[in-house]
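Listing S7. Sequence submitted for prediction.
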Amino acid sequence: MLSIEDLSAGYGRTLVLHDVTMRVRAGEFIGFLGPNGSGKTTLLRTISGVLPAARGQVLVDGTPLHTIPRRTLARTMASLTQDVVVDLSFTVREIALMGRWPHLSRFGRENRRDHEIVEWAMALADVSGLADRLTSEISGGERHRAFMAMCLAQEPRILLLDEPTNHLDIGHQLSLLDLIRKLNRENAVTIAGVFHDLNLAAEYCDRLVLLNRGHVEAMGTPADVLTAEVIETVYGASVVAETNPISNKPHIVVSAGMNTCESCLHHVLPTMPHGRKE
């Protein structure tokens, strides 16, 4: 469904991604991991068409992305990013209704089915109770779920997510990811998302792509990618990689002080002076 071929991209003359090649299969749930600045969001923005490729290309169903009209692409692909900018004077229902834009007739009038899909999308995103509230009046997490409803209302075959659990408490994180996985498995929606939480990515993704300084460091199943050795190489962090006893997925264990030796602290922290200056 998605093909990324020798892709390099960046901002101005500075390249952030270098020669990235991968295939995302139809119906797959794939997660992009990596340290800050490794190119995860840049990759997602390039796949969505917001950021042009400097070299290489992205293909959707074999068609070069840059040749697909935006309205046509929006019927296939929806994207929930961290930098969504929408006038906060809209209600949650109005935000969700914006997702129907690619499907509207030439006169731009919503019909009964459009409104039914919006109600369905709000219910799935758990914002039905906020439908008539202004987005300026709700929390950041609630606003995030409102934008998810907008994406769902597009009825996409591909859903791109940039840190989908950002701003959400643990209950809503799991609820949202369960929803995304249900869309993936029951509606065959292809999911590609950026994750910071390695354990959540391991639990929900079929395959992981670990980026390091703009290159693909590792790609494969969570068990292939999330090893203690790979994580130490990429993140510079000492961890223990175990198996979740419930899901049998990899589980990364950290503990305070695992990455700092006692003698190192004396070089980093100066000795605090004693007494009080009179």
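Caption to Listing S7: primary sequence and predicted structure tokens for the chain studied. The chain has ten helices and twelve strands. The two ends are 71 Å apart (CA to CA).
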